[in-house]
Amino acid sequence: MSEIIQPATNVPTGPEVVQKSAPTPLTPPPPPEGWRIDLLQKFPKLKWLVKQRWFQFAVILPNLILFIMFLMAGIWGSPVGNRNIIIVFVWILWWFLLISIMVPFFSRIWCTICPFPFFGEWMQRGSLTTPKLARPGTKDKKVGLNRYWGLNLRWPKALSNIWVQDFSFLALCTFSAFYLTRPLVSTIVLGALIVVATILPLIFRQRVFCNYICPVSGFLSLYSMASMTEVRSRDYNVCLKCHDKSCLVGNEKGWGCPWFNFPSKMERNNYCGLCMECVKSCPHDNMTVRLRPFASDTKIKGYDEAFKAFIMLSLALAYSVIYLGPWGIFKSLANMQLGVPAFIEYAIALWSIPVVVVPGLFSIVHWISRKFAGGQPKPWKESFLMMVYPLVPLGLLAWIAFSLPLIFVNGSYILMTLSDPFGWGWNLFHTAHIPWTPLFAHWMPLVQVILMAIGLALALKATFKQAGKLYSNAKESIRFAAPMAIFMTGIVILFVQLYAN
Amino acid sequence: MKLKYRKWAGAILVIVVGTILPNFLISHLIKPKDVYFHIVAQRFFYTPNTIVVNQGDRVHLYLSSKDVTHGFYLEGYDTDAIIRPGITEIQVQHPLISSKYFPAKSIVFTASKSGKFRYRCSITCGYLHPFMMGVMIVKPNSLFYQAIGLMLGILLASFILVWPTSESSERVQL
Fold first, then answer.
1. Which residues in chain A come in under a pLDDT of 50?
2. For residue B140, is the peptide bond before it cis, meaning its omega torsion is within 30 degrees of 0?
3. B143 → closest Cβ in A83, A446, A453
4. Domains of chain A by residue range
């Protein structure tokens, strides 16, 4: 029987099957905290659906058609952003749905339907739906038991983390004023991503683009930790006795996990793209989709993930200043209206907040926490990463608070562009000429304050809980958490200052 | 268990007091007066970008544009205007009452509602048009002070919930 070796990096680097005599003993993941509802058991029709081989193809296809139409609109449609479907549907509607509904409730469901890796994966697998098995005695390129096309190389170990995603997202956000408002630039950016997502699978095995490159995937991985949906094994003892490990190596019913996870051991949502291959391939029907309490995964595993949390929180704050604030200077800087040198200064300032200022402040507060707690502190890295976690629910709520006014104020553009997607004067559904109508605009500060209050409550709950894991003595753990709790409250007050004053 | 309920009651009380208390501390008794502002619109901001008035003030807004045609939609006060460059007269509309615009020299209204209200460009004026906005603060901006009180209340409440007491070493699970 083959032995399955799990790589020791944060992001798994892919299943490796080597012939050895004895199987490696599997350590069971810790039992989950809080309630769980097995959705596939509760809803048999859902189970039937996700087990169909055509399931993912069927959900990607309409999305892909829409996406191609958006790209075309970016080239041939109106150059006016709010009259072009690519800007309105991608940056207003999609963004709102993604950050406010999909991620908090359905984890990385966007990755299930994302059209970016479609062509690359199709060519890599040589099949749209049916899994292919490597033929014994041939030169078939295989990962696990499945056969793949392309060079099938391993992704470099040094890049097997989300640092590239951290900085690619930051780089993309530096130019946000361009692609958020200019249809052609949006097409170029999204088109470039789809080209990279198509080329990489021909060189490297499985979903390296999604795991290591995609700028969207980086923050989805972080915030999916807070999500209320998870894919997990039902009973780990079944996995222990399983000799096939089909969820990892694949079989005739499903591909081995394209996300480089060992699904039966999965204890976090971070790198699960909800492709449902493990649900299909499991010979014991032991993989399932569960509903769970909000913010259930609490383990940040490396500085790359920690920096993602810093970057996301900082950008929520920076974007609230630039796009929701009244200050013309920031908009002019972001839009390069004041010249290239001024834009470079703006970029340096924008990068320094998440890369230097926030991590620096956080490190100082963390140092104070350790001193204040006294006792026998855990290693610096361990306690640092533990205490970064509260920024996950806080950051997610901050992004929802930032995104809400965009959809409520500019939502009427959705109806307009639905009728006239290219801005060519069409009126398909008789909604092309409805006036711009902001909805509940003057209620937004109140809603944003409520969202930030929820974010703070969740962050504080996580802060004390994480501190309790680091210090067994109650008073020490409270002393450790206190500076962190004050720091989080300070951040939230900054947001409140921006949203309500 | 009793201790747990007492702690939760204390935590909720702190949050409620934190949210309500600022309302009593900020002054409401300011005599209303007429206030005048000249707001200049240009891509993609207004000058001044923030105006502050007191609740009850009669606000007179004179609007002009420096470059292209801009809009001026004031949240919460059902007022929208078209500002054309080089023309002091503006076209005003109250969207909830009528879709018709009428000419006017200024926008005049009583700041009856307190809080934060954004004024936004309502006529597409360029790439960053959806983000062109300014802020009108009608004092007392109780939401802001209540929000600060709420956040501090949540912070304090979290300590109440986890604090170990002499009565028991029990820590309430948050």
1. 1-23
2. yes
3. A446
4. 34-291, 307-500
